[in-house]
Amino acid sequence: MQIQLDRVTTGRLEENLGGKPGYLKLFYDTEDCGCNGVLVIQIVDRPNDTDIVIQNEPFVFVCDRQQESLFDSTMTLQAEENYPSYKLTSPSGLFSSNLRVKDLR
Fold it and tell me: Which residues form the Core domain (predicted)?
């Protein structure tokens, strides 16, 4: 799996990390949402035993191996210029246009 990032997105993710170590986890959060899940980027101290590394540079991205099939092999993560969210797309479609970061460290 590959996640393409532009300069603005890289800078925003660095801001989200705040100079501290952390893994960026793509995760469908189903807690208290009353739906099939809301895609979020979780910042975690370390991956869970069931997480797999999907990309190492410029950030380490992980996802749960049970959720890996929900994503495409090539995706683009793009920060919204004037809003604290991201858009995740792939050649086959849109995953989320309002993707938020949740710091769980």
Answer: 1-103
The rounded distance, in Å, linking the Cα atoms of 46 and 51 is 9
pLDDT tens figures, 19-67: 999 999 999 876 766 667 789 999 999 999 999 999 999 999 999 999 9
Is-contact 68 52, C-beta < 8 A?
yes
Domain boundaries, the chain: 2-103
Q: How far apart are CA 23 and CA 56, in angstroms?
A: 10
Q: Which residues contact 26 (CB under 8 A, 6 or more apart)?
A: 39, 41, 54, 61, 62, 63, 67, 71, 88
Q: What is the dihedral of CA 2, 80, 99, 21, to 10 degrees?
A: 60
CATH class of the region 2-103: mainly beta
Task: Give start and end residues of each alpha helix (H) in the chain.
Answer: 7-17
